[in-house]
Each structure stands twice: as C-alpha cells, then as structure tokens.
Amino acid sequence: MSEPSCTPDLDGLISYEDAVEQLVAAAVPLSERLTLDLRDALGYVLADSVVTAIDVPGWDYSAMDGYAVRAADSPVPGVELPVTQRLPAGVSPRPLEPGSAARIFTGAPIPAGADAVVMQEVCEARGTSVKINAQVHPGDNIRRRGEDIASGSEVVAAGTRLLPQHLGLAASVGVPRLVVCRRPRVALFSSGDELVMPGQSLSAGKIYNSNVFTATALLQALGCEVIDLGIVEDTLEATIEALGRGAAQADLVFASGGVSVGEEDHVKPAVEALGSLDMWRIAIRPGKPVAFGHVNGRPFIGSPGNPVSMFVTFVLFVRPFVLRMQGRTQWRPQPMLAKAEFDWPRPDRRREFHRARVQSDAAGVAHVSVHPSRSSGVLSSVTWANGLVVIPEGRVVKCGDDVSFLPFSELLA
Questions:
Q1: Which of 264, 299, 325 lies at the terminal end of a domain, its last residue?
Q2: Dihedral through CA 311, CA 312, CA 316, CA 318, nearest 10?
Q3: Which residues touch 241 (CB under 8 Å, ≥6 apart)?
Q4: Distance (Å, rounded) from C-alpha 91 to C-alpha 298?
Q5: Are 110 and 62 in contact (CB under 8 A)?
Q6: Cβ neighbours, 10 Å, residue 37
C-alpha cells in the first residue's frame, strides 16, 4: 500500500485530509491481547470476532400471552377448544393434541403441532376450554428459531469498542469471555513555565494547567491508560528528558504546548534530537502547529498549548490515531448538515473548525449557531458548544446556507 501524500499547501502547510491520512497510516495497531470476563470487558476493543454456535432464539416461541392452536382447528371466529396444557416460559411442552388449545405465555416454546398463537385479548376463557373470537392464520404471534441470530453468524465484529449492548449480545449466545486489545498507554506532559496545578496559588504571570485535565479525560474516554509526566519546564534539556521518559513507558507520547517556533518552544528540536519530525504545520484554524513524529521509536503527537487549540487538534488528529492503535475500523467522524444561523463574511485560507451549537426546530431542521469568540484561549466556548462547524478554505457563509457540523458525540469516543 502506498503511503498517503502530504501535499504542501499555503506556504508549506499540509491539508487537513493529508494530515489525518498520514497519521492514520502511521498508527500501528497494538498486538497484545487480553482475555477478559464479560463483566470486565466494557470499553475495550474486541480483537477476535464473536461468532455464535447457537440460534437465537433457540426454538419457536410465543410473542405474547394467549393460546397456542392449530389454525385449521379455528377456521372462523367463535370456535371453542378444550385447553389441554399450560405453558409458562421455561417449560418443555407436550405435542398439541388435534382439536385442542394450550394456554401459553410470552417466551414459552411453541408445542409441536401448533402453528399459531391467539392473543388472550380476543379469547374468552370458559373453565377448561377457550372460545376464540378472531380469525386465526398460520404463523400468528410466533417468533421463529434463529430469527434474531442464526448459528454460525458473526454477532460482534473485531474492532468494535465494547458497549453494554455488545456484552449483553455476547452473553445471549453463551460467550462468557472475550479476547480484546490491550488499552493503549499514553504518556502526557504539558510544556510551559507559566503553568501551575489547581490548588496552588497563582503568582504574577502564572495560569492554571487546564490542558492536563482535558487531555487526560479525552484519552480516558477513548479507553487509554494515561501516564502523567507532569509540567515540563521550557528548556530543551527538560523537553528531551520528558520525551525520552514517555517513550520508555508508553505506546504514544502526547504533549501540549511548545510546538511553535518561538525561543521558548522546544518540542520541535527535542523530537528531532531523539528521532524524526514527520509532520508539523497543518492548514487549519485553530491549531496550525501540530507536531507528529517518533522519539526513540515511539510515536509522538504535540498540540498547541492554547486550550481550545489543544482540544480541537486532539479530536481531529489524536483521536483517529488512538483508534487505529486500538484496531478500531471506524475512526472517521460522521458530519451532519445544518442551516447556518450566522454570517461568515471573511473567508480564511485555512479550514476552520469553529465552536458551534446545533439545535433542531419544530420541523426537525437542524440550525447551527457559532460562539462569538474566535480566540483559542476561551475554553468556556467548548463547554457552550455541542460540536464544531466546518468552514472550508475560502468559503463565505451566509445565514441560511447549509454547513457541515461535527457533533461532539462523534468526536469524544
């Protein structure tokens, strides 16, 4: 397979599509496997598909409470039949005698000879018999063997991140344990002498380190184990040391801050000192400086330090990389169309991913509004939003235009 191109764009910037394709192509799925009980497998990625050895249901059963009959014994409404057995769920029925009915309950097996179930609402119980006040047709109210799942079929595909319903489905076909991929280990650090941790006092020029909590939660939501390397001071030596420490412990090293070209930005030369920088600047807003490379043989991704830029570049680039490391097959977020409730009169040469909120009107039409601030330091805009509106390069948007919207539900798991 040929590697995706990294076509330069806009003074050497890489396009969004090329950047994502390069990252995904470079992500090597983890090979280590674990076998876990169903109770412990939530959130892991399935390594081996679940294939059922049984039919579900395992027999024809009644879809409701009523009476099992032969349709031919009740050709017209008003027929009265003797009731010869009572069949709650979990019993093994006798064959149905011709010219008789069986009292049956939801989930109970259909007795041999019966070909229909008449709901109790159209029946009249008369001691040891029942009067059927409806037309009966073969197959009425019967769920057939294998109707849900047929023996030999794949019920959960490899590469699926296991949700509660997947675990229930595996249990329904009698599978007690699952083979899953090990969780990726991601080493994380924040770069910046201005950073202090919440709980400490703020002196002049200092800010609280919000990125470590945002990034940790984003990684955990993807099913990663996080190794926190702390705050790294703004020196080349400290950055090299942190990168080496992270590469020795983790499958991926992720850093926020220090990826630009200022005198206090040391990530780029530190990565090059320990390995290679394969990608750097991307034609998007916010988050142009996104670093990707390898340090001591381990992949590295670096994001800008501004909190909104870090958040946006994480969901756009780190997320698909992590999903491919996990062996997940579905990593592309699915956008939706919405009507713009804003004007965007000044097009940008870069693609913009702006914080936005979608709401549906009474007719079910989705309308998207944008946060008034374009600053990458306004983290409150991310909590206000429920997704990102995508403004293509050079696009002018007028109120009422169709725009593409990426819901956070598609970007945070």
A1: 325
A2: -30
A3: none
A4: 59
A5: yes
A6: 10
Q: Where are the beta strands (DSSP E) in 192-318?
A: 195-196, 207-208, 225-232, 252-256, 275-281, 284-285, 289-295, 298-303
**Sign of torsion over alpha carbons 132, 138, 144, 147:** negative
Q: What is the rounded distance in angstroms from the CA atom of residue 330 to the CA atom of residue 2? A: 21
The residue out of 181, 197, 230 marking a domain boundary is 181
What is the residue range of 379's domain? 336-411
Question: What is the rounded (10 degree) CA torsion for 114, 115, 120, 122?
Answer: -120
Check which CATH number belongs to the domain holding 340 and give it: 2.40.340.10
- Whether 250 and 199 map to the same domain: the answer is yes
In a domain, 267, yes or no: yes
Kind and range of the H or E run holding 354: strand 351-360
Half-sphere exposure of 287 (CA within 13 A, CB side): 26
Residue 132 domain-assigned (yes or no): yes
- 304 within 8 A of 313, measured Cβ to Cβ: yes
pLDDT per residue as tens, the chain (413 positions):
333 334 444 567 999 999 999 999 999 999 999 999 999 999 999 999 999 999 999 999 999 999 999 999 999 999 999 999 999 999 999 999 999 999 999 999 999 999 999 999 999 999 999 999 999 999 999 999 999 999 999 999 999 999 999 999 999 999 999 999 999 999 999 998 889 999 999 999 899 999 999 999 999 999 999 999 999 998 999 999 999 999 999 999 999 987 765 555 788 899 999 999 999 899 999 988 899 999 999 999 999 999 999 999 999 999 999 999 999 888 899 999 999 999 999 889 999 999 999 999 999 999 999 999 989 889 999 999 999 999 999 999 999 999 999 999 999 98
**Would you say 82 and 101 are in contact if contact means Cβ atoms under 8 Å apart?**
yes
Q: What are phi and psi of 99, to 5 degrees?
A: 75, 20
